[in-house]
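pasting for the record
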Amino acid sequence: MTGLDSWDPAQYNRFAAEREQPFWDLARLLQPVEAPRVVDLGCGDGRLSRLLHRDQGASQTLGVDSSPTMISAAEADVTCTVRFELGDIGPWERPGEYDIVFANASLQWVADHRRVLAGWAGSLRAGGQLAVQVPANADHRAHLVAAELGAEMLDDPPPDPVAHNVLAPEEYAALLDELGFGPQHVRLQVYGHRLPSTASVVEWVKGSTLTRFKEPLGTDGWREFVDRYRRRLLAELGDRSPYFYPFKRILLWGRQS
């Protein structure tokens, strides 16, 4: 993820209900395990980690995130069985420690998914489960306009992590097979979000993909970027109320043989 902390829990959670849909779809892919040890990689503010802990009847749940702001928000509700730590999920691994490795909308922020998923798979106990959800919406104008504007305003703009890092669904399926996952489920799903207006898309991406521009642009540049982005996106998509926002995501699950 980004070097300095560009994450704002309040901004991210403005669309909490919409962001929760794929989280729970991913959780429903998990098969029952008695009192599993769970790790939630890219846990954000930890709210959904705590719900996952309860939903799975977990004995222990660890949430890991690289954002100090998010981890600070999560630590308010630490219990004896749910804890959080600051860390980079890319190189993260704990050989043979967990029954469930769960990552919702976080893997896209790190590169080399083949290497990363191999490390996560190695962190599972025998018969352990891997469940991952990644956005696959890099071809939507909300992403493309951001990349175009970033190239105009920065000499070396940070790439769109979804376009740069995310694999095709069939590549994830082949990778799960290579990593020893027998039963598996991989699908591309379109989530249709009816937002209040086209401008709501700007608020959505301000809490996610646009965060990569905050640090290199600085305060004034970031303000100008968001203003120009809003005007350009509304000009292209139309200023409509409501606005239907189709959002593609890849959900993958596997259980080690």
